[in-house]
Design goal:
The protein is built from eight helices and 14 strands. It is α+β, with helices and mostly antiparallel strands. The relative contact order is 0.18.
Amino acid sequence: MAEGAELRQRFAAELARLGLAARSAQLEQLVRPAIRISSTFTQNPDFPVGSSKLGGLPDFPLGVQWPVYKDRPLALMAQLNMAEVAPHDVARVLPNSGMLYFFYDMVDQPWGYDPANRDAWRVIYCAEGRSALTSTSLPHPAPNWYPLPVCRVEFCAELSLPACDSEDVRALALNEEEPDCYGRLVGDCTVGDLLGFPPELDGVHRLLGYPAELQGDIRWEAQLASNGIYLGNGLMDTNEPRIRKLLPGIADWQVLFQMDDDNDGGAGWFGGAGGKLYYSIRRDHLQVRNFDHVWVSFQWQ
C-alpha cells in the first residue's frame, strides 16, 4: 500500500536524522503498523447510518441484539465501518468490510483484573454492509447519561513503537546517547502520517500497533484474567504452577483498539481524568475474525 511505503521511507529518514541509523535493522523489527483515529466532538450527531464514530447509538443489521450486563445495556464506545478503515490498514489484518462495534459497561467501569467481569464488555463484528443497517433507539432501561457523547472520526496509517521503558527496548542495550534519541523517535513516528495529526499527548485512539499504557502491560491481564486468575490483590506468584503454565501465552495477545478519555476534544467519556480503555485480542483469533474472547483493560493516569 502506498501509505505504508511512504511511512517506512519517513521512518528511515527519521532514524538517520536522530542518529539511529546503526539501529535500523533492530528498530525495523520493533515497528508495528497502526491506525490512528482522530476524533472531533459534535453536539449535532446527525450521521448517515453506518458511519464510523465514537460514542452515540449503534446502527445494527436485523437480528443483532444490544449487549447487556447485569440487566442494563452496555455503552457503545465505538462503531467502525471497516470499509472506511481498510485503506489505512497497512498490515491488512482487520476485516476490510462490515462493521465492528465496541461496547463497555460504563456503570461499573471494570478494570479487567477480575475474571468475573468478562461479560462487562463486548466486541461485535457484523459482515453486513451499510445498506443492511438500521439506526437504533435508546435501549430500555438505560442510564440517564446514555448515550455517550459522540465524535466524528478520521483514520490515518501510522507506525507505532514500544515505550522507552518496555522490555523490547531494554533488550536493545542502547548506549548512553541513544535512549534520548529513541524517545524523540517515538514522538516523531506516532504523529499519524506525519502530515498533520497532533503529537501523541493525552488523546490517543488507535487500532492495532502498541498500546499507550499507563499502568503496566495489558497483555498480562488479558492472558491471566481471561483464564480465571484474579489479579485484583496486587500479588501474583509467577512460580505457581497454573500461572507459570499460562505465562508463555502472554505473547499471543495484542491490542485491538485503544480509546482515550479525549477530554480536550470535548467528549470526556471517563470523566476527564485521563482514563484509557484497551481491547486486547489473541492474534490467532484476529486472523479468523473471532471477536468473542476479547479482553478489556482500563487504566488511569
